[in-house]
Amino acid sequence: MQFIFSRVSTKDLRGRTEADVFVNVEAEFQIADEDRTICSESDFPVVELAAGLRMWKSSADAVRSPFEFRSLSMEDRWVVRLLPIDTGWQVVVDENGELVTGSTCSLAEVDIAIDNFADNLRATCVDLLGKWVERYLTEGFE
Questions:
Q1: Three-point CA angle 114, 57, 22, nearest 5°
Q2: pTM of the full predicted structure?
Q3: Which region, left, alpha or beta, applies to residue 52 given φ > 0 means left and ψ of -120 to 50 means alpha?
Q4: Looking at the DSSP assignment, which residues form a beta bridge with residue 81?
């Protein structure tokens, strides 16, 4: 599993609040699974997703609960879930009522995909905006 972004845009970013950054730092976004694309979305709120994934990953639960992403800016029209299944974890995308599922991954593989995505996004956003944006892309962000 891979979370992939490209063409980060900050054209609508006017402030430095959490809401400003989450809603107005967007990119082309895909979730890839082996040789196929699970989803592809333009103008996707990648910082909001990365922060949510990092918070979920750093949760103190002995058994991690399912992850569900509902964007502040996308009016519940697009949902990403990471769900536990018998043999591991599976990404499930609900795009306009159509469910698309990925292959089963171990929790370690999911965590690696999250770290790669968030680390690469953090580096890109720092290059574009400066070090101040790191606080929204750091492990355990609150």
A1: 70
A2: 0.90
A3: alpha
A4: 68, 92
